[in-house]
Amino acid sequence: MGLNFLISGFLILISFGYLIIPNSPQFYGKSIRRINTKEKIVALTFDDGPNPPYTEQILDILKQHNVKATFFMVGKHIEKCPYMVKKVYQEGHEIGNHSWSHKVLICRSSKYIRKEIEQTDKLIYQLGYKGKIYFRAPKGLKFVNLPRILNSQNRHHILFDVISWDWCCPGANKIVRCVLKKVKSGSIILLHDGNGDVNFIGTDRSQTVIATDIIIQKLKARGYGFVTISELIQNNAN
Ligand SMILES: [Zn+2]
Questions:
Q1: Choice among 47, 166, 193, 213 that is catalytic
Q2: Active site residue: 157, 166, 192, 193, which one?
Q3: Domain residue spans in the chain?
Q4: Which CATH fold would you assign to the domain 33-234?
Q5: Which of 42, 111, 224, 226 could form a disulfide with 67 if both were Cys (CB 3.0 to 4.6 A apart)?
Q6: Which pLDDT score is estimated for 20?
Q7: What is the pLDDT of residue 31?
Q8: 59-110: per-residue pLDDT in tens?
């Protein structure tokens, strides 16, 4: 009973972290949560993959709707299914770096953080990806050392302004509602095709798959277009 209470408390804390931490100050470089534009464009981002078969199911939905997205992948998962990197970029999507092990990168040494970033970059490039690789920290947590390192690499930290809560598996309709309530021009939408906190792949993301289909249809009906993170940043009026 006591342990369950502690675990629940911890999970609630982590969940609220998503709301608070992306807004936390940083002393170096720039985090992008949304871009300033009047154009009705948004970027769908999928974190914590690759995670078959859910990543492939999301790719199929994106293809059906002719939509391009950005996948922030975890190095340790890429290592288990490297073919997914090629599949994602060959279908015209962008690949981002979401660290190697998905361990929180605050209070870590520069050496540790650099290794988490560079090992993942290296593997993505070894698998033939040619585009620019943007970075998103595990759980969006940044603080001082990580922004300083990203700044030295001339790299923005890509966050999000629309949280879908899909990692809590609240049901596809709830995920859709969370996104539609918050979305605006220039938004970066956070969804998950995988789970970075496990050492195996296969976390059920079927709710995200269903929700992605509905979100695209509803946003298209509202006149929104979909772009990758690179394309979104090119439209930044700031
Ligand atoms: Zn993550």
A1: 47
A2: 192
A3: 33-234
A4: TIM Barrel (3.20.20)
A5: 226
A6: 45
A7: 87
A8: 999 999 999 999 999 999 999 999 999 999 999 999 999 999 999 988 889 9
